[in-house]
Every structure is written in structure tokens, then in C-alpha cells.
Specification:
By secondary structure, the protein is mostly beta strands. It has one domain. Helix content is 10%, strand content 37%. Strands 2, 3, 5, 6, 8, 9, 13, 17, 19, 21, 23, 25, 27 and 30 form a 14-stranded parallel β-sheet that branches. The protein has a 12-stranded mixed β-sheet with strand order 1-4-7-10-16-18-20-22-24-26-28-29, with helices on one face. A hairpin with a 2-residue loop joins strand 14 (176-178) and strand 15.
């Protein structure tokens, strides 16, 4: 009898477990099917307009969204972009996504299903890009106004949270919007450390791949390849961190620096000073036109630099302006660098007056087995697949 009771108990447990499993699957399916697009998400073929205060707009993960105008996430609004969504821009410079102060974007891709923002035609500059404006400190004033959308940014909230970008791929952005002005692929204006920016790939932007204007945001696992200006740039008092950065320059005669850092163009000693920590980075060049620096730091910019692989550049580190040169020259702030044989000049320095400055010993240290972004000059494992790299 005891054996029979035991068998009955086991059978009941199995049936219960199976029932729970079926119920769990059913719940997941119901969750997916229960997304009812509202606001500007209702017509995937006409994706544009505003996400207003108190509104949460979630895109339908089964649709492709055609962006034929601008999308603005206003203060108090939230735009949710599930994994696997494709947003295809068709209106040139009029197609862009702007997250204003107090607004939030949640682009939650996965390694198997990244969020993709692209243009209908695969060429640099065919649409705007993604712009986020936060409330973290900048050094150009108490606040600033973005060139795109005239949106305010900057403030005193170092931990401001503008949302999440995770496994997001941005292609062919950088459309011109004024005289000598272009969008970047991703622009972060005064974005705070509460914002998560990880696993973001930027390809073929007609200006910078990513540009950071002050703020405290940390970025990680960034791919920036084939841009016509800088792969990664920062200015105006950025004091965040960057880790696992993999960049390649265009080989068609266009493109500028791998990393370009500025403190403040008009006041090199402006506070807060641009002074990020940048580590685990691979910067690959490929032509000798335009600016040919793997890393160019100027106008008072500072940084802590560690574990870089630099290949195919005329100059590894170019230090400009008295404040920047004084901070780096002989101070061991640049550590564990692998310069491949095709780097002609490992480091150079120029004063604010434009005269050459001798590079002192201990300005940088070399490391023959530095692995940069994780795999030397090759694609790091964290970037394989979702970014389009193999």
C-alpha cells in the first residue's frame, strides 16, 4: 500500500509540473499577444510623432516600423522597443529619434534579436540618428540646447536615467541638417549614469559613430565601424567610463580619428573637466588621409587609458594644448598599449601655441600581449553575431 501511495504522489507531482509548464508557456504567449500598440505605434507604416507625458508606447514586436518623420519622446514619456524590432527610416534628415530631458527609451534587444535602426537605402547619411538628452552636468553652462530638435540638456542630476540601450544596431545615420552640420549615429547630451548603454553597434555614419556631450554615462561593448568622421568622440565635461570599444576606420579615403576627446573648445580648464576612464579598446586604421590619429586629445581633455591595441595609424596618441599635454606627458596615464608595427609615431604632443613638445619617458607604457577589446585586432567574442561581425 505504501508503495502505491508513493506512486500516486509521484504521478500527481508530474501532472502538476506539466500543468504548470503549459500554463507558463501560455502566459508568455498571452504577454506577447497582449501588447496593444497605442499612440504613434498604431500605424507601423507611418511611424512618427510624439510620446507625450505619462504615455508608454510599446512597439509591436511582430512589425517592421517605417519612420517617415521624427519621433520625439517628451518629458515623462516612455518609448519601449522590444527585441527584434526593425525601424526603417525613409525621410532623410527628417527621420530621427529624439529623447528629451525626462523622457526615456527602452530599446531592449538580445544577442539573438537586436534592435535595428536603419535607412531604406544602405548608404551613410540616409537618415538622422538617435539623440538622447539628459540632466547630468556639462561644462558649457548650467544647461545647453541640442543642435537637433533644440532640446535642453545638462543639469545637476549625475545619476539621471534616460532608459536602456542594449543590443542595438544603428546603420547609415548622419544626415546633414544644416551648413556643415550632420547627425551622429548616437548622440548623448548630458546623459546620466542611471542610463544603460551596452552592446551598441554603429556602422557607416556620415559623421561620428558615437559622440558624448558631457554627462556621466558609462558605455560598454561599443562597435563603431566605417564612419566618415570619428569613431568615438567626447567633449564638454564627460566623466563616465567606456570599456570594450572596437573600431575600424573606413578604407575609401574618408574618416578621421579613432577616438577624439575635448574638454571645452573655448575654455580648456572648464569644469567639470572631460576625464573619462577608457579601457579595453581596439582601434584599427586603414588609410592615410584626413586626421590620422588613433587617439586625439585636446583643449584640456584628460583621461585614464588602459589596454589598447592600435593598428594602421600614422600616430597612436596625439596630445594637444598645454593643459592636456601637462596632464599626460611623463605621467603614466596611458598604460598597457600594443602598437603594431604599422604605427609610425606612437605619441606626439603640441602646445597651445602650436609648437612641438618632446614626449617624456613614462608618458605611456607598452604591453606586447595587450588584447584591447578582447581579441587583439580581430572581432571580440562579445561582438560576434548580433552586430553583424563574424
Amino acid at each position: 500500500m505504501k508503495k502505491n501511495y508513493f506512486k500516486l504522489i509521484i504521478a500527481a507531482f508530474i501532472i502538476s509540473s506539466v500543468s504548470l509548464g503549459i500554463q507558463s508557456c501560455s502566459t508568455d504567449e498571452e504577454t506577447i499577444n497582449s501588447i496593444i500598440p497605442t499612440g504613434i505605434a498604431q500605424d507601423p507604416n507611418n511611424f512618427k510623432g510624439e510620446v507625450t507625458n505619462g504615455e508608454v508606447v510599446t512597439l509591436d514586436p511582430t512589425k517592421v516600423y517605417v519612420m517617415n518623420g521624427s519621433v520625439k519622446v517628451k518629458n515623462g514619456g516612455k518609448l519601449v522597443i522590444p527585441a527584434g524590432i526593425r525601424i526603417v527610416a525613409t525621410a532623410g534628415a527628417d527621420s530621427y529619434i529624439l529623447v528629451e530631458q525626462g523622457g526615456q527609451i527602452f530599446a531592449n534587444g538580445t544577442a539573438g534579436s537586436p534592435v535595428m535602426l536603419m535607412s531604406a537605402t544602405a548608404a551613410p547619411g540616409n537618415w538622422g540618428g538617435l539623440i538622447i538628452c539628459g540632466k547630468a552636468p556639462i561644462n558649457t553652462g548650467a544647461s545647453g540646447t541640442s543642435e537637433i530638435g533644440n532640446s535642453p540638456y545638462g543639469g545637476t542630476d549625475a545619476v539621471d536615467n534616460s532608459g536602456i540601450l542594449n543590443y542595438v544596431k544603428i546603420e547609415n545615420a548622419g544626415a546633414p541638417f544644416g551648413t556643415d552640420k550632420k547627425f551622429n549615429g548616437l548622440s548623448l547630451f548630458g546623459v546620466g549614469s542611471g542610463t544603460r548603454v551596452e552592446n551598441v553597434a554603429l556602422f557607416n555614419t556620415a559623421d561620428d559613430g558615437i559622440e558624448i556631450y558631457g554627462g556621466t554615462v558609462a558605455v560598454a561593448n561599443i562597435v563603431s565601424i566605417g564612419n566618415t568622421n570619428n569613431a568615438f568622440s567626447f567633449k564638454d565635461g564627460w566623466v563616465g567610463t567606456a570599456s570594450n570599444i572596437f573600431t575600424k576606420r573606413r578604407t575609401d579615403g574618408t574618416g578621421n580619428n579613432g577616438i577624439k576627446g575635448i574638454n571645452n573648445v573655448t575654455n580648456p580648464d572648464a569644469s567639470p573637466r572631460s576625464n573619462p576612464t577608457i579601457k579595453n579598446t581596439t582601434i584599427i586604421g586603414g588609410n592615410d588621409t584626413g586626421e590620422t590619429n588613433a587617439v586625439r586629445l585636446s583643449s584640456g581633455a584628460q583621461a585614464t587609458v588602459e589596454n589598447f591595441v592600435i593598428s594602421s595609424w600614422k600616430t597612436g596618441f596625439n596630445l594637444e594644448s598645454d593643459a592636456t599635454v601637462t596632464y599626460f606627458n611623463g605621467q603614466s596615464k596611458i598604460k598597457d598599449i600594443l602598437f603594431n608595427a604599422n604605427v609610425a609615431t606612437k605619441a606626439s604632443a603640441t602646445s597651445s601655441a602650436g609648437t612641438a613638445v618632446t614626449i617624456l619617458a613614462n608618458t605611456y607604457t607598452e604591453k606586447t600581449d595587450a588584447n584591447g577589446a578582447g581579441n587583439g585586432e580581430n572581432t571580440p567574442t562579445w561582438a560576434i553575431g548580433w552586430s553583424g561581425l563574424q
